Amino acid sequence: MDIGEIDEEFDTIERCLGVLASGSLDRITEHEWLHLVDRYEKLTRLAFAAQCLPLARLAEAGPEAFGGERIKTVIANRLRLTPGQVGHRLDHTADLTPRLSFTGEDLPPVLEHTAAAEQRGLIGREHVTVIREFFHHLPAAVDHQQRDNAEKHLATLSLTMRPDEVKANAKRIAAHLNPDGEFTEQDRARKRSFRMGAQGVDKMRTGSFCVTPEVGAYLETIFAKLAAPGMCNPDDTASTLNGVPDPDAARRDRRTPTQRCHDAFAALCREALASGRLGSHRGVPVTIIATATIRDLQEHTGVATTAGGSLLPIRDLITMAGHSRHYLAIFDDHDGRPLYLGRAKRLATADQRLLLCATDRGCTFPGCSMPASMSDVHHLREWADGGTTDITNLTLVCPTHHQLAGRGPHRWRTTKSPGGRTRWTPPHHLDPNRRPRTNSYHHPEESPMAPAAQPP
Ligand SMILES: [Zn+2]
Description:
five-stranded mixed β-sheet, 16 helices, binds zinc ion, 456 residues
């Protein structure tokens, strides 16, 4: 079938589903409703299976196919999914579609039996997730034949069982295949992770970690000392970081064990930053860079923005300034003019970067959420075109979007708006009208929904 014929088939399916979704269905019994939802579910599963091959083909294409943009981002923007969702689907697809060997021979999918059941619409995405999860935790020492048998068995169970039931069975099989719970160095290394989630509305973050025995031993040793009652307590001035905790401070300490571990970890990070041994990152010493307005600082209210993209209550910022020398850019409330740039050492290039951290706050490409600490300094007017390194000609762009800027018909052009925002003009193939756009992600206070600035 060519793309025109496929599109026609899609039109038929969409028309049919549209009628069913909006139309009135009369005289249907409960048993018939159940029959209908069952059929819809099979259709959903088939649709999911049908998406695998196109996704696999797209994953093979290099970024050149879409003007240098990563395929994951292209799909996420087109389908309006998060990059995380797309990543999950691509990983999923990689295990369920035929592969090529190093020598160019066709190989069956990694999860051959699961893929076969999925293609017939007999099992759902949740079943596949359970089976993939089972293999993720299986030690490398389990041989090919045992793996294949286990996969076949789990795929067969999925034909008649719910995902939670398959999961319970998978657990039994894992215990059977690895009765002594033996895992190698590689098994453990594969699973290591440290994930910090996005800030919530209360500005707190949650996350998860899976650490190797080595890191576990480090933390255990450090916590034994720094997380003891009376140590590193932010609410007690008699609390200490070095030496033995004051017995009275220890008695007064009402923190929970997990709160004490948190405070110990904070003390550890503070020490690392204050030591100066972390060197520099993108031309600026590794330390906290924060932006605030003079009004918020004077009134001890509001929030500062860090170069890493965090929102930091002004009170916390003032406490932190007592511990270490951090960078601070202060802005006028009315015209956004920079008033003061605090720094430990004068560095011309670092100053420019600091100012960009404060004005742009992150990548200026439309819709990008990359913070300043992960962005490059970009010349609006390229060096080659006679552009200078004056601050008015500089802006922040993350490495991915940096590649999209420049000369040539397929590139985005960058200019400054009268208000000082960086404007991106798309190439003709993306927008024939070439309307320039700006990124409002890092400037929520400028959105129409934000409360208006108070007069002084
Ligand atoms: Zn970007």
